[in-house]
Design a protein that fits this description.
Layout lengths: L9 H8 L7 H40 L3 E6 L2 E7 L5 H12 L6 E7 L3 E8 L3 E2 L21 E4 L12 E4 L25 E7 L1 H8 L3 E7 L5 E8 L4 E7 H6 L2
Amino acid sequence: MFYFIGGVTREKFRDRIFPCNYAADAVCYGIALSFKRYKESTMKRFSFLAAAAMVIGCGAESADKNPVVVIETSKGPIKIELFADKAPITVKNFLSYVDDKFYDGTIFHRVMSDFMVQGGGFEPGLKEKGKTKPPIKNESKNGVSNERGTIAMARLGDPDSATAQFYINVEDNNGKGKFKERNLDPVSGRSGYAVFGKVIEGIDVVDKIREVETGTKLGTIPDGRQKPMENVPVEDVVIKSIRRADNVDAKK
């Protein structure tokens, strides 16, 4: 059995590696030197490949990692994982609003304790925030369901009309929860509401929001007209900010 420890000498090779006699000493020593060079070359190649594999592995892990955001509200923080792998268009759109600080100072303007909490489009005083980006393509057929704790895009009747407003499901709204008739997922012949993330910390904060007292108030839309809006919190539930989690952690 070959067993190398450090450098090779004639005596070490002859006495410890091969049962060579002194007559074959030169031949054995030459073989030993060749084996040592082969070993050193192999070890270098192995080290290089191992290092390359680590770099590639780290890159793959980073690429596969979904972004996380923190919603700082007047009721506490909510941390949300965004499904960039399942809803890339929606996540890109949402993060563009986050990076523009569009959501800072907006409110949860629609709260239904057995349904969802909706925000991202109105400021305190129930004034609708204007200057949204163009609407995006509906990605509701991404295999992610409107289950409790998921976040999805609010929209109009047109499936491709979502801009900035979002909601968090406080119940299973996929036809499988206690409200069987309520299904926000896509079904045959009808688009659903695109889920693009889930709450990973702070579901207790979401539950605090769902339990606030609500009523009917007059809301103001961008053209100045007012309209009555139902399920509006009596006291504003403010979205202080939404930031990428890595930016939040860097400031701590």
